[in-house]
Predict the structure.
Amino acid sequence: MPSRPSARRAFGMLDAELIDRLREMNLREPIPPVRDRPVIADANGKRGLSGFEEENAWGAYWRIESPVEASIPGLAADSQAEKKKKGPFKGPRNPAKPRAGDAGEGAAPSSDEDLSELSRRWTRDALYVDLETCGFAGSAIFLVGLVRPVDGGLRLTQLLARTYAEEKAVLQALWNIAATCGLLVTFNGKSFDWPCVHDRSTLHHLGRDPRIPGREAGALLGDRLGRNDARPNPRHVDLLHVSRRYWKGTMPNFRLQTLEQRLCGRFRIADIPSSEIPDAYASFVHSNEPGPMRSILHHNALDLITMVQITARLINAP
Amino acid sequence: MDVERFLGAIEGNPDYAGQIEHLEILAERAGRWEAPERPLPDPIVGMLRRGGIDGLYAHQAAALDGARDGRDLVIVTGTASGKTLCYHLPILETCWTDPDARALFLFPTKALAQDQLRGLLERIDGEPDVAERIRPGVYDGDTPTSQRRRIKAEANLVLTNPDMLHASILPYHPKWARFFSGLRYVVVDEIHMYRGILGAHVACVLRRLLRICAHYGARPQFVCASATIANPGELASKLVDRPVDVIDDDGSPRGRKFFAFWNPTPHGQDRLARRGATEDAVWLMAELMRHGAQALAFTRTRQAAELIDRYVREAFAKQASPLAEKVRAYRGGYLPDERRKIEQDLFRGDLCGVASTNALELGVDIGSLDAALLVHYPGTIASAWQQAGRSGRRCDDSLAVLIAGNDPVDQYLLRHPRYFFEQSPEQAVVDPENPYVLANHLRAAAHELPIEAASIAEPFGAAAEPIAGILVESRQLAQAAGRYYATSGQNPAQRISLRHMSDETYSIILRRPGVPAGDAKPHEVIANVDAISAPELIYPEAVYLHNGQSFVVRELDLTSKVAYVERRETDYYTQAILESNVRITRERTRKPIAAPASLAFGEVDVTWKTVAFKKVKFNTRENIGYGTVDIPEQTLPTTAFWLAPDDDVRARLKAAGYRPSEGLCGLRNLAVVGLPMIAMCDSRDISGVVDSRNLGHSAMIVYDRYPGGLGYCERGYRRIEELLGICRQLVTECDCEEGCPSCVGLPNLRPAIHSDPDLMRGYPIPDKRATIELLEQLVAEPVTACASRGAV
C-alpha cells in the first residue's frame, strides 16, 4: 500500500510573516548581487587589477602573468642590474646552517630523490603550485598561483575566479598547464593543495582521478578535460617534507613563514593573514573592489617566491 | 518460560496482595514463510542456511521482491521479526553480483551501527564466497583517522548516522565520489526516531544526499525500517521525498505474550500511598531470575536503573546466591566498551537481569528475553509496545509487566487498561520544509555543490526559493550565473546540530588517591554525561551511581567539562533539587484576538539549575540531610507565545468554583498536544508553563525546545484561534469523566529527568471542568474545524 508524499505546500502557504522573521534574523547590510561577468578594471584601466580575461571550454576567468622578479620585495624594477650580479634570489641574512647528518637518518641530502629531481627540473619543467581557497578543506578554490620556467626565466601565473562560478574554468586552465610540466612542487601540497585540486575537479566532473584505477584514457587535454580523460599525474615534491628532512632540529617549526624568515631573512609587513583571506575574497566578489584582491595576490606570490627560494637553498643553487 | 506457572508462584507469595490489576493475554501466531519470486544466489542461500535460516518469512520475501522491483520500502514489523534481513538480502545480493555497487546504512545512534556491523560480519563470515565481496565498515565520529581513508576507498557497505552524513560525509563528497556514484541502496533504520525537529533535519539531509548522488549519476533506493507507529508510510515518504511501499504483514511466528498491569503494594490503610515502582520491580526481577528467566527492566531514569541493579544484587548477595553476579545496569553514559560487553553478555545468557533506561529500547540485538518489566509508563504507547516487545520468544510464552508509579497517568492506565490496548500508537509528524531548518540546510547544500536556482524546488520544495532569496540578501549565499553558491568557506554543517541541544559531553574521571603507582591508573574516565544532564547528575558532593557502586563527586570543572569522582561506599544516594524558570526577555509582537485574553509572541529564556540536593538513604528512602549546590544555571534562549486570560475570565472561573491556574494548566497540557497538529512538530519539541511572575497574573507560556526557536510557537501565535479550537475539541470530545492522559493530563512537567521517579510528587491531572469552562470563554464559536485526534 503505497502512500504518497502530500502535495507540496504552495509558496503562498509559507507564512509571509515567517519569511519576515527569517529575514529579520539574518539581515545585515543588503549587498549588491554578484555579477555574472564581473568587470575588474574600470574604463580607464586604472583602478583595476592587471591581467586579462581568458576563456576556455568552461567559461572565462582572470589571468595574471608576470616575471617572478617583479614580485620579489627589495628587487625593484630599477635594480635589475644589481639583481644580475647577486643572482636572481637573495640569500638569507642569517642562514640556518644545516648540520652534517641532519638531513635525515640514512638519507643524505645528495641521495634524496626529491632533491635530485628538484635540481634537475626546477629550471626546466617544474610547476610550483599554491592555492587560495574560500576556507577549510572542502571549500572552493578561487586562486591558483603558479611559478614555472618560461623562456629561461621564472614566470608567475595567477589564475583567478572572479566569482564563485569561475572555479571550473580556473581548474581547467590549471590542468592545461600541468599537462606540460614534469614535476609538481608544493609546500604541504601532498596533504592540502593537491588533494584539494583533485577533489574540486572531481566535484566539477573535470577529468578522471588518475589515482583511482579505471578505464584507459588518454591524457590529451588541449582545451577539453572530459569526465573520462585522466588528469595529468606528474611527480610531486612537497617542500615541507624535504625541508623537514633537511633542516631537522634546526627550525622551531616548519611553517612557510618561519622558513621564509630564517632562510630568506624576509619578514612580512602588512601582509594579509591567511585567516582573513576567505572573507577578503567574499568582499571582493560582492564589491568588485580590487583592493583586497591585490593583497591576496601579493600574499600568494610571496608564498610561491618563498618556495622557489627554499628550493634554491636546498639544492645549494647560487 | 512457563509464564502461567510463574504468575501462579507470584500470586501464591505471602507478599502478594493483588497487585496484578489486569492481565491481557496476546495470542500466539504461527509463522508464514514464502519464497521470493526469483531464488537468491546459491552462496547467499548457503550463508542463510549456515545461520539457521531455511526460508524467508512473508515480509522478508515481500521486501526482497519489492527492492528487486526498484521500489522504495518501509518495513514495519514487530521486534525480533527479522527486519534486518529485509534490507540485508537485496543489498547482499546486489553487492555480490555487482562489485561497483555500494550501500549506505543510517542508524540513529553509534551503538546501533556497531551492533549492526557485528551482526553483518557474523552473517557473512561463514561464507567465504560472500565475505570476499562484502566489505562493511562503520564510519562515524569514533572511527580512527587511520581507518577513514581505507573505509572511503574500500568499503562497499558503509554504516553511519545522519549526523555524520550531514557534517562529515556530504561536505567532503568528492572524496566519496566512487561511493556515491555506485550507491544503490540507502537503509534508514528506526525511522520512527526521525520525527519533529530531528525528523525535519534528517529529511533535509536526505534531500542533500540525493542531490549529491544525482551529481555522480546515482539514484539509490531507500529501504526504511520503523517501530510500530500510526503512520509509518507517511513518515517514510516525507523523509525520503518519494512514495514508499509499506511492508507490515509480519510473517514471523510469535509465542503467547502475557501483559500484566501491576499496581505496587499499598502501604497500610492509606490507599493512596504505595510502595515505589522500583521496589516491586526489584522483587519481580529477582523472582524472575530465580525461576531461571532472563528479564529486562526498563526505567524512566538513569538513577532508577542503577537502584534496581543495586537492590537486586544485594538481595542475591544476602543469600550468597551466584545470581548476584548476573545482574547489571545499562544506560547512556556508560563507555562504549562497557555497553558492548553488557549487550553481549545478555545475548549469550551470561546475564539474567538487566535494568536499563530506554537506551536498550532501540534495536540493539540482545536476543529475545523472557520478561520485560516497564517500571513506570514510558510516556507513549509506541514506546511501551517497543519495550514490551523486548520480551518474546518465537514459540515460547513471554511476559511483560507494566509496573505503575504513583503518577496520575500511570494510575489512569491501571484503571483503564482498555485505553492502553485499544489506543493506536502515536503519529509521527515531520515537516521537511520548516523554513528555519531548511535555511540552514540550503547553506550546507550550497557549500557541497552550487544549487541550480531554476530547479531549487526539485530537491528542496517550494519553500526553498524564497528562503534562498533571503539568504542571498543576508549574504549567506551568493547568486551567480544562475546558481546559488556558498559564501563562507567554512563547512556550515559543522555548526548545525540535528538534535535538540548541544552534543557536548562531560567526562567522569575516577581519582584513586593513595593508590601505589603501578597498581592502577591514578585517573580513569569511567563514564560520560551529556551537558544538559550534567548539572543534575554530577554536581559537587553528588553520589554518582555506576554499575551498582557509589562514587562521590569531588569537583565539577565546568570549563574543561570534567567531573572528578572518588569511589566511596555510601549508605545514601543524592537527589538534585532543580529550579526551573521561564523568563520573558523581549516581546516581539502582539495582536488583538477575539478571545477575552491577551496574546503576544517573543523571546524567552528557559533556565534550570540545581540549587540543592537531598541525601536519601538506600532502601528506606529516609531523607537524611540536605546540601546546597552552587553551579551556574543552564539557559535555553528560545521563542514563545504567551496567552493571559482577562481579569473577568478569571473572575468568572473563580465564581464558578474553579481555580483559574488549574484551568490554564489543563490548557497548557492540551496546547502541547494540539500545537503539533498546526506546527508540524513533535510534542517533545515544545513545552510550556503556567506562570504569573512574568505578567503579574496567570499566563500560559508555550516555547520551542530548540535554541533560538524553530517557528513552532510562532505558528501557534498566528493561528491561536485554530489552536484553541483544537484544544477545546480534544477536551470536550474525550470520553473520560475527570480528565485523563488524552486530554488535560499529559504531559507532565518533570524538571528532574534523571532522578529517582519514585521520590517525585506526581503532578495531579488538572481539573477537566475548569479547563472546559476556560475554553468555553476563550472560544466563542462552536466547534467547526475537524481536528484529527492523532498526536496524543
